[in-house]
Amino acid sequence: MKNHFFAIVNPAAGGGRSAKLAGPALAGLREKGLKIDVVASTGPGHAVELAREAYEQGYRRFIAVGGDGTAHEIINGVYERARGKERIALGFLPLGTGNSFLRDFTKEGANASLQALIEGRTRAVDLVRLTHAKGDVYSFNLLSLGFTADVGALTNRYFKPFGYLGYLLGVFVRVVQLRRRAFRLRCDDDEDWDESRCLFLTFNNSKFTGGTMLIAPQADPTDGLIEFVRWGPIGRLGLLRMLPKLYDGTHIEHPLASRRSVRRVEFGLKVPVDVLIDGEIAPLECASLNVIPSAVDIYI
Fold first, then answer.
1. What angle do the packed helices 68-82 and 46-56 form, to 10 degrees?
2. Which of 28, 59, 199, 285, CA to CA, is 20 to 30 A from 276?
3. pTM of this prediction?
């Protein structure tokens, strides 16, 4: 099985676009000589189980056919089992709604991913590990608390079928319901706990989220660091004026914004909070974050 790719198709990704385009895209790869076994996921969390079973069967090369959420589930299905043993390689057929991660490397999207798979071209990237009350979860894109997670939770619950428009609807609803909270934490060698109120916190492995939002313009998924971006307790009018700047990265210049590069984050949260992880939402009681340098190989 080590010479075969195991492709997991999320037929719901991209509002159903993945189901229509996956077949021709995978057929094109097979015509170029790639050996690919394919299975479709049936709902949230299923790709984790499928990837885990495939790893136990001997597969080491995977293709996520869908959005960032599909890739996230594959990584969380196989990385813990592979760590310290054999390297895992992951390719993308980005047919979902977000597909943020690949934007760090290319503007060509699916075409660049297909070419990398055909040429066997990979690049080692970092992962971020979140340890919480019930275990660990791995992220290749970003984790976020506060406004961004509130938007993601609302969008996933009510507006996801509308794609990018649904995300915008989620943003404006959460602007109306604006909450500014403190998330108790400290980074690396900090002695004091930070309990400052904020609009959101993001812990980024890569630059983009929500498809085109440049949340962390200085992030690098290969540098062995977590890019920590905070936006302070801005008001509604100020936020509305600043929202467009989230798309070109200039929001980081706002007086209430800050950034730093860290390797570890410790949380002092005693209750579960919504966490946005690679486009998916989970209520978790967070304990710590740490970066795992060059953890997996990505076809790009």
1. 40
2. 59
3. 0.92
The CB density around residue 33, as the number of other CB atoms within 10 Å, is 7
Over the stretch 120-173, which tens digit does the pLDDT of each residue have? 999 999 999 999 999 999 999 999 999 989 988 888 888 877 877 887 888 889
| Cα distances (Å, whole numbers) of residue 236 to 40, 147, 178, 200, 210 | 42, 12, 7, 14, 20
Catalogue the E-assigned strands of the chain. Answer: 5-9, 36-40, 61-66, 89-94, 122-132, 135-139, 142-146, 181-182, 185-187, 197-198, 200-204, 226-231, 257-262, 264-267, 273-277, 280-284, 286-299
173 is written with which tokens? 């609803």
| 235: Cα within 13 Å, side-chain hemisphere | 2
User: CA 241, CA 109: separation in Å to the nearest integer?
Assistant: 30
Residue whose entry in the numeric block shows the structure tokens 């010479």? 3
